[in-house]
């Protein structure tokens, strides 16, 4: 950054950045993971068929919805029974081995969500729940939705729920591009200090936190800006050449077992057998 150039999170004031590329952090990270998958998900139309939802995806969606709706209850109604009712209403058997398997997991997840909520202050209403935000960053308008924004003594804290069965890495909050974007976007939206980001692992209640500095936030936004520059190029390549473009090589690896688009990708199929629909909850040696 030169002395004359505004910081990336301040460039929305600069007229030369007024035709932004709209993108979510997920779009950016999908491209980094696998350019072919990015093409399937964001450029090919109609979108290629995806595999049906897997059990761990269903669990993730249900838990997020229950934790969202929890804050709509009056404080006196925020009880374990209310959580169990909300979870039962949102539950789906899709992706589970059979109804008994689904019922076992519904009971287990209900317990985990109740325990997680026991570990937080349920009387303090968050500043935001599933709050949509956006932030101009260089050539892009980044958009996203934040699980929860806590107000802790006037300081705003980003909370992102995680439902994977795997424990979180200690560095996960520090290196997360979406969390840094959320913090910068919330600072701008509420004109309040927001530098702390937290990952809340619902199955265990573990919290992985990181406190950003202005410099570390700007580094993350510069990373986003750099990925956007690549996306602008590859999108243009797709516009000109369609699926014949060489800008979307497959990147086979462990992710291919879980890829929604693997049936369209011979290289990904060669990387290993598809994961079983419930394998994200109960790993097998398949
Ligand atoms: S199967 Fe693997 S290589 Fe193919 S699109 Fe999916 S992630 Fe990429």
From TrEMBL:
Listed GO MF terms: exonuclease activity; helicase activity
Residue spans crossing the bilayer: none
GO annotation (BP), single: DNA repair
Domain (PD-(D/E)XK endonuclease-like): residue spans on this chain: 22-266
Pfam families, per database record: PDDEXK_1
Keywords: ATP-binding, DNA damage, DNA repair, Exonuclease, Helicase, Hydrolase, Nuclease, Nucleotide-binding
Protein name, UniProt field: RecB family exonuclease
Organism: Branchiibius hedensis
């Amino acid at each position: 950054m030169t002395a004359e150039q505004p910081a990336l999170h301040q460039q929305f004031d600069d007229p030369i950045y007024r035709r932004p590329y709209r993108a979510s952090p997920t779009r950016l990270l999908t491209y980094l993971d696998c350019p072919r998958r990015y093409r399937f998900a964001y450029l090919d139309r109609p979108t290629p068929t995806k595999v049906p939802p897997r059990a761990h995806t269903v669990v993730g969606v249900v838990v997020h919805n229950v934790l969202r709706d929890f804050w709509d209850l009056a404080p006196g109604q925020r009880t374990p029974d209310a959580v169990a009712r909300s979870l039962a209403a949102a539950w789906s058997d899709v992706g589970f081995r059979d109804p008994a398997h689904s019922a076992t997991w519904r009971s287990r997840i209900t317990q985990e969500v109740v325990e997680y909520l026991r570990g937080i202050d349920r009387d303090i209403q968050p500043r935001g729940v599933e709050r949509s935000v956006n932030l101009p960053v260089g050539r892009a308008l980044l958009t996203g939705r934040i699980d929860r924004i806590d107000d802790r003594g006037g300081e705003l804290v980003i909370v992102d729920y995680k439902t994977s069965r795997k424990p979180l890495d200690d560095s996960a909050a520090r290196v997360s591009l979406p969390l840094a974007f959320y913090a910068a976007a919330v600072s701008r939206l509420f004109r309040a200090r927001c530098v702390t980001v937290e990952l809340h692992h619902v199955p265990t209640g573990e919290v992985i936190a990181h406190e950003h500095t202005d410099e570390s936030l700007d580094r993350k936004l510069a990373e986003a800006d750099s990925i956007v520059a690549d996306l602008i190029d590859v999108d243009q390549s797709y516009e000109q050449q369609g699926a014949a473009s060489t800008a979307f090589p497959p990147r086979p690896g462990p992710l291919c077992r879980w890829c929604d688009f693997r049936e369209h990708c011979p290289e990904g199929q060669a990387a290993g057998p598809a994961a079983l629909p419930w394998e994200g909850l109960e790993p097998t040696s398949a």
